[in-house]
Automatic annotation (TrEMBL):
Protein name stated in the entry: ATP-binding cassette subfamily B protein
GO cellular component: plasma membrane
UniProt main location, coarse: membrane
Annotated ranges, domain ABC transmembrane type-1: 30-314
Lineage: Bacteria, Bacillati, Actinomycetota, Actinomycetes, Pseudonocardiales
Molecular function GO labels: ABC-type transporter activity; ATP binding; ATP hydrolysis activity; ATPase-coupled lipid transmembrane transporter activity
């Protein structure tokens, strides 16, 4: 990034963070500013009271003056002790309030990304991680800015005081601050760039750490003895990030060490001069005290200004990621004038749809023409990786087709707001979620209007055949389905969660979808993959009833469960290779008939007499395996 662009980015970040903190905690911000100013002038007041008191001792006046100066010194000393505590409280409260707002706004912006592509982009993920990191502590940024400001005020005060004693010496001390300032800025720039560079390694390290401590991976790690291997990889990533951090720390150590030596030489020289001057009567004892306090004060303030500015610079560079994420435009184009999405009456049509995940990826769909008629069930079958789930993602508009279009009763789905489109769809995805919520909430999130409606939730659970299992849990629908958290229940005892079986989770996912069964389109991507034979039969019988007269799309590798679909489309080589009803496809003797025959043959005993029924009819057209 060029220097002017970087400066513009930092100015933007500074404006955004200021506005954010002001909106989050205006009173605390002003109070923190006042406290910072008081903290800035306190050391100068202490130095002046000390000088005046010492001069008063050497050439005594009325005793009341000395008492007044002592009282003043005590008062500013007290102020100096109390103010940092108040400042710490204000800074912490400011941080909490600003963090709440910053994180809320960040994730509101992330929520506005309607598609999935950004969440699959590692550069974006790194940016999001850094944005989240800087949103977690906006107070640090304010503190750095205020620390630099406070040090500047103290610096001006001490420079004035030092100038009273020796203007030349003041100039030397200030001149020594210029290289320190430039050096610190450069270091902070390097540090911010290094933080960005080590992002991918830190993400990988986080991944291995999570694997090593997660219940989901514990089984395989133990069975396959992967612990040492994963730990090795985690350590390798950590070593590489540590090497970068170490290089940076060493650079800072050398640079800052040189600055400390420079400061020591200047103040040592000054001290010799002022003592000699006092000996020859050129300056007073009070001036010596003021000089010593001013030199220490100027150098500490220069450090404070430089350090604060450098930290601010670095925070602003990192906070730039927050501004970038917040300012990222829509990931999917939205129409300037959105079209209305009519209730589905005719059907959904894919017109010559081509799709690949990016220019670097191969084509997944290569000109798919397909119609999902209203009120009918269409089943989609095909080999692994043939693009079935991809097609579902396009229907939900998680991505736009690379070429071609999808029409909802003739309306291009790119012309309607995505939220409206998705509101018309109910779905069970192949990789459905298992939320660390209680059973009620796990179902109710299928339709948030059911969150306070246990009757609807129970009805959906009954339809998915999971009600009995949930009702039998220790706290029924209020049982936490996770061991990740402890929830305080009505009593004093915390209640740990329970663990469901894979099939029970799948039924919960189905129940979630059933809350939306009145929607225009129901998508069921492998809805029974984890169910036992009886449960599968039961679920599909239930689904058949729910699907009757509704527009649905059913994906399953178990062809017996989709044979009664109104239409079956076979995806192969990125196109629809065959379509028709079960009987038609069997008669074609193509891909579908071959797959169906293969599966059916697995259920027959070549030596046993064939029983009558649906499956035996299919077996009759099956091929020898
Ligand atoms: N997010 C993604 N980024 C890149 N490629 C992807 C992504 N998701 C899927 N693919 C690729 O797209 C192709 C189709 O995947 P998809 O999941 O749609 O197949 P599928 O027919 O649903 O497979 P299965 O029957 O195994 O569930 C595969 O080659 C897969 O590797």
């Amino acid at each position: 990034m060029s220097a002017p662009a970087r400066r513009r980015g930092m100015a933007k970040a500074a404006a955004r963070i200021t506005a954010l903190v002001w909106r989050a905690a205006p009173v605390h911000l002003v109070a923190f500013l006042v406290v910072t100013l008081v903290a800035a002038v306190t050391p100068i007041a202490v130095a002046w009271f000390t000088k005046l008191a010492l001069d008063e001792l050497v050439t005594p006046g009325p005793v009341t003056v000395l008492i007044g100066l002592s009282a003043g010194l005590a008062a500013v000393g007290l102020l100096g002790a109390v103010v940092p505590q108040v400042g710490q409280y204000l800074r912490a409260e400011l941080d909490r309030r600003a963090k709440l707002l910053a994180k809320d706004e960040l994730f509101a912006a992330v929520e506005r990304f309607a598609g999935l592509a950004r969440f699959e982009d590692p550069v974006f993920l790194d940016r999001l991680r850094l944005a989240e990191q800087s949103a977690s502590s906006p107070g640090q940024l304010v503190e750095s800015a205020f620390a630099a400001g406070r040090a500047l005020v103290t610096l001006v005060g001490f420079v004035g005081s030092l100038a009273v004693v020796n203007p030349w010496f003041t100039a030397v001390v200030l001149a020594a601050a210029v290289p320190a300032f430039l050096l610190e800025l450069r270091l902070s720039h390097h540090r911010a760039a290094m933080i960005w560079r080590i992002g991918p390694a830190q993400r990988r390290e986080f991944f291995y750490t999570r694997l090593l401590g997660s219940v989901d991976s514990a089984k395989e790690i133990r069975l396959l003895g992967l612990g040492g291997f994963l730990r090795g990889r985690m350590n390798q990533e950590m070593r590489s990030t540590h090497a970068a951090l170490r290089r940076m720390d060493r650079r800072e150590l050398v640079a800052q060490g040189a600055l400390v030596v420079l400061a020591a030489v200047i103040s040592g020289g000054g001290l010799v001069w002022v003592l000699l001057a006092a000996r020859s009567g050129q300056v007073s004892i009070g001036d010596v005290a003021m000089f010593v306090a001013a030199v220490a004060g100027v150098q500490a303030s220069v450090d404070g200004v430089v350090g604060g500015a450098a930290r601010l610079h670095q925070h602003l560079l990192v906070f730039g990621h927050y501004t970038t994420v917040m300012g990222a435009g829509a990931d999917l184009p939205s129409p300037p004038v959105p079209a209305a999405l009519p209730p589905l009456r005719r059907g959904i049509e894919l017109r010559d749809v081509w799709f690949r995940y990016s220019d670097e990826h191969p084509w997944v769909l290569r000109g798919v023409d397909l119609f999902f008629p209203h009120g009918a069930t269409t089943a989609l079958v095909g080999h692994n990786g043939s693009g079935k789930s991809t097609l579902v993602k396009l229907l939900c508009r998680f991505y736009d087709p690379t070429r071609g279009s999808i029409h909802w009763d003739g309306v291009d789905i790119r012309d309607v707001p995505t939220a409206e489109l998705r509101d018309r769809i109910g779905a069970v995805f192949q990789d459905f979620m298992c939320y660390d919520f209680d059973a009620h909430d796990n179902i109710a999130v299928g339709d948030l209007t059911a969150l306070e409606d246990p009757v609807r939730v129970e009805a959906a659970a009954r339809r998915a055949g999971v009600h009995e299992a949930v009702a039998a849990l220790p706290l029924g629908y209020r049982t936490l389905l996770s061991r990740a958290f402890l929830t305080p229940t009505e009593g004093e005892e915390p209640q740990t969660g329970v663990v469901l079986s894979g099939g029970q989770w799948q039924r919960l996912a189905l129940a979630r979808a059933f809350l939306r069964s009145e929607r225009d389109l129901m998508i069921l991507d492998e809805p029974s993959a984890g169910l036992d034979a009886e449960a599968e039969h039961e679920v599909h019988s239930g689904l058949r009833r729910i699907r009757a007269g509704r527009t649905s799309l059913l994906i399953s590798h178990r062809l017996g469960t989709i044979r009664d679909a109104d239409r079956i489309a076979v995806l192969s080589g990125g196109v629809v290779a065959e379509q028709g009803a079960h009987a038609e496809l069997m008669a074609c003797d193509g891909v579908y008939a071959r797959l169906f025959g293969l599966q059916a043959s697995g259920y027959t005993d070549a030596h046993a007499p064939r029983p009558g029924g649906a499956l035996s009819g299919a077996v009759a057209v099956g091929r020898p395996s």
